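Reopening this ticket.

The earlier resolution said the output was attached, but the attachment link was broken on my side. Pasting everything inline this time so it's all in one place.
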Amino acid sequence: MATPTVVVPDNQVDRVDESIFLPMHPSKFNYVPTVEWMANNYQLSFGIVLAYLALCKIGTMVMSNRTPFNLRWQLFGWNCLLSLFSIVGTSYTLVEMIQLLWNNGFYDSICDSW
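Inline output:
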């Protein structure tokens, strides 16, 4: 039995198959509404940071006289999800970086202005 031959048009040789990343391919992400929202609501981030710092201080004071919680399995689950998130993020970033380095070189990957 003969092995089938795949013919790829010349203009598509350097393209990455985006179907493996669907539905979350970065080319489909519209960042403009997010940037506009953040520009209009940047004060909210200061409030969130202050609330976080206050809750850390309050949590430390509340738990100072208590026995520690047993969070072994919750932390295990958190670390698994964080690892999965990192693997997915690396797979997206690595494909784009390799493509950029291969097509434009190291200098353009760092110094090219958008």
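Reporter confirms the inline version is readable. The chain has a mean pLDDT of 81. The chain has three helices and no strands.
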